[in-house]
Amino acid sequence: MSETLEQSFVKQLKENQNIVHKICRLYTNDSEAHNDLFQEITIQLWKAFPKFRGDSKFSTWAYRVALNTAITLYRKSTRSVSTVSYEVQKHFFTHEEYNFEEEEKLKLMYQAVHQLNDIEKALVYMYLEDKDYTEIAETLGISEVNARVKMNRIKGKLIKILNP
């Protein structure tokens, strides 16, 4: 018996939910906004999933949808994230609670990254996830050379922010 669309989506999302959590961490400042953005990204991923053709890895596709959702919502509202009313059914998908204490060591870096613009944040995130420049460029819709140049400039910016 083959997997249903829903089962396939839940399986892929469970395997890749840290991608969504980390993007939420980059674009929000508290746990309530984090959870709201996580929920909105999950909804957008589910809506777009029937169109996912598998031309790229699920994780690459999820990055793109999650980043676009986060950036769109971030631009629409200065600091708060509005979400679509949606009740997650327990059998459908439950996400693991995100451990903010575990991320405490990265607090200074996150504060510095929060000062970057949307595209710079996305680039830093994927760079820290050890994505190669080809995948970064594909996800962000820019050339590989442009991704490398932007990353070098961002490194300089972050050094200035962290070491004034």
Q: What is the tally of beta strands? A: 0
CATH homologous superfamily label of the largest domain = RNA polymerase sigma factor, region 2, helix turn helix motif
Stretches with pLDDT under 50, minimum 5 residues: 84-91
Q: Write the CATH architecture name of the largest domain.
A: Orthogonal Bundle
Count of helix runs: 7
> For the terminal residues, how far apart are their CA atoms?
60 Å
- Sheet of most strands: none
Helices and strands, in N-to-C order?
HHHHHHH
User: Can you tell me the CATH class of the largest domain?
Assistant: Mainly Alpha
Work out the count of structural domains.
2
The helix/strand class is mainly alpha
* Radius of gyration, taken over Cα atoms and rounded to an integer in Å: 16 Å
What spatial form do the alpha-carbon principal axes imply?
globular
Instruction: Write the CATH fold name of the largest domain.
Output: Rna Polymerase Sigma Factor, Chain: A
What is the arithmetic mean of pLDDT?
Answer: 79
Strand fraction equals under 5%
Helix content: 55-70%
GO molecular function, one term: DNA binding
Pfam families: Sigma70_r2, Sigma70_r4_2
Protein name: Sigma-70 family RNA polymerase sigma factor
Organism: Flavobacterium capsici
List the main descriptive attributes of the protein structure presented here.
0% strand, mainly alpha, 2 domains, transcription, Arc Repressor Mutant, subunit A, 164 residues, Sigma-70 family RNA polymerase sigma factor, single chain, RNA_pol_sigma-70_dom
